Every structure is written in structure tokens, then in C-alpha cells.
Amino acid sequence: MKFKTLKKDDQDVEPQEEDVDVKKLLKIKGKKKKRIYGKRIDSKTEKGRYIKSKLPKDSYGDIAIDATLRAAALSSDGEISVKGEDLRHKIRKHGARASIVMVVDISGSMFSDRKANRLKGILNSVIEDANRHQDRISVIGFKGEEAEIIIPTTRRATSYREQVDNIRVGGTTPLAAGMKKGLEILKKEKLRAEFVPLLLILSDGMPNVGLEEGPMKDAIMMAEKIKEKEIHTVVINFEKSVRYGHEVNMEIALASGGRYYDLEELKDPGGVIAKILDYEREEI
């Protein structure tokens, strides 16, 4: 079985943003959801804007000095003396960010130099865009019999460029395994209230390895499970494929309650990915 990496000896060309209306690339819109991205939510850390104070659960934490002094003044007679019961902690808020899981086809169907470099351009564009928006991102590749984590969930994905360059493409196409791994990660990310889950699937829609019932049936079943967990899903076809591949991708988008973009006619799909992600942030 042959494998190759995405890395090339010649100089890489940076993706150029194409002057394209992304709405025309959107073929399936999915169900409209309540927007959370960018909304002010309680911060779990000491970052974010200080909004108000609260009684602390313990003596450690982000102390609100102003509120603490006010509480001490109310209970003091003359000179202010701060007691344990006067302590107040800060409630901070910040804009909700996305946690993006990118599930990518790195099977033998991506073996040509053209396909491999289009894929690399898209990967780097998504990573740069997530970094610019301070989103979390992870990248999962599927090939052979399983899915593998190429980039673990992080807000510093730009430090993983070498992993992207050294992705080895080849083998069969276990799409359902990639979707399952993506769902597992986003189920955990959903527990973090400050991040909105977004599943991004890049595939030619030609699965040939299943989990239990068969390649196609398993992929649809995984899409239905993703829908049950209310995870915003975007399926992207970025390469010319047979009609069957388009139909499979659209079926996955429909079964997941998600959206489907067709970029096959674009000379540089990596150049329009940032526009698509910005458009999708308005939907989550």
C-alpha cells in the first residue's frame, strides 16, 4: 500500500482569498439555530470583563476588592476591617468562542499532488482562522481502518504546522470512524459552556470502510447521532468527485441537520474557507 505526505519540496503558495459569494456555495442550509457564538457568558477563568461580584465558595479566587471593601464597610463601626465573610469574588464575562473539530479525509483518494496540496491549503487556512478568532481547534484524519488525532484540541494550533506537513495520505476511507472520533471530542467540548461546538467534515463522499453495518449506513448513523447531540455540522466537498460522492455528502449533511458546501469548481478552495467559517459563526 502506498503512502505520501502533504509536504512538498517546492515552496508552498499561500491561499489567496477568492472573490466568491459563499452563499452561492451553500447547497444545503440546515436548520436555523439560536446563536451563541460571541454572546457574553460567564468566564471560568480570571479573563474577561468584570461585571459584578458574588459570595465566594472558598477563600481562593478572583477577589473583587471594591465589593469586598463595601461589604466590610457595612459591617464595620468606624475603621474598616475586612473579615472572611466580607470577601467577594468577581463574575467575569467574555464572548463565547467556537471549538472546531475538523474531520479530514486522508485516504488514498487524496493521493495526487493536486489533491494533497488543496487539502493542505484548507487545513492551514482553518488553523490560521481559528487562531485569529481565538477558537479551539482539533484535526482528525481518517484512513485505513481508523481515525487518528493529528492536532489535539488547542488554541495554539499554529504550533502544529509540522504535523500538517507530515500527514501521510493513503489507504481506504473509514468516514464513519472519523465522524465518531469527532463526536467523541465535541461531546466533551460541549460540557465547556464557553465554547460552541462546530464539526467540519472534508470528504469526497466515498466511504468504503464501515464500523458495523457498512460504510454508508454507518456514516449516516453517525450523522444522526451528531444531530441528536445538537452539534452544528458543516460538510465540505472541495474536490471533483463522481455524482455518488456528492449525494453521500449531501445525505450526511441532511442526516446531521447540518450544512453542505460544494467548492469543487474553485481553483483555490483554501482561499475561501475563512469566509465560510465567518459565515458559519453567524449561525452558531
TrEMBL record:
- Pfam families, per database record: VWA (PF00092)
Q: Where in this chain does the record put each VWFA domain?
A: 99-280
The protein, known as? VWA domain-containing protein
